[in-house]
Design brief:
By secondary structure, the protein is α+β, with helices and mostly antiparallel strands. The protein has 2 domains: 56 residues, no CATH class; 43 residues, no CATH class. 34% of the residues lie in helices and 12% in strands. A 3-stranded antiparallel sheet has the order 1-2-3. It binds zinc ion. The site of zinc ion (ZN) has 8 residues, from α1.
């Protein structure tokens, strides 16, 4: 199964030629805001296939970081929180437990 909802989405994110971005640590899809900064406009539906995208985990990310006593930009943030590892790992563990 592909990581994204459709081939077009996967291709657009991989190639970076359209203003669609995917922030893996927040599981967030967005359109780049053309203000020269790094802000994005979060989208909930895929512009190509129209499917509902997975919901953003931005709030959960900040909750978990806060529980570790850390804030955004702290150098002590565990590496798994800088990628999609922190939210993918529990799902993979659940799958493994299901098989045992
Ligand atoms: Zn799609």
């Amino acid at each position: 199964m592909s990581t994204h909802c459709c081939e077009e989405m996967g291709k657009s994110i991989a190639e970076g030629e359209v203003a669609i971005c995917y922030i893996d640590k927040y599981r967030e899809y967005g359109i780049d805001v053309l203000d020269g900064g790094t802000s994005i406009q979060v989208i909930e539906l895929c512009p190509w296939c129209g499917r509902k995208l997975l919901s953003s985990l931005r709030n959960q990310w900040f909750d978990e970081i806060e529980q570790l006593g850390l804030t955004l930009g702290d150098t002590r943030i565990p590496a798994e929180y800088l990628s999609d590892e922190w939210w993918k790992k529990p799902y993979l563990q659940m799958q493994n437990n299901g098989q045992n």
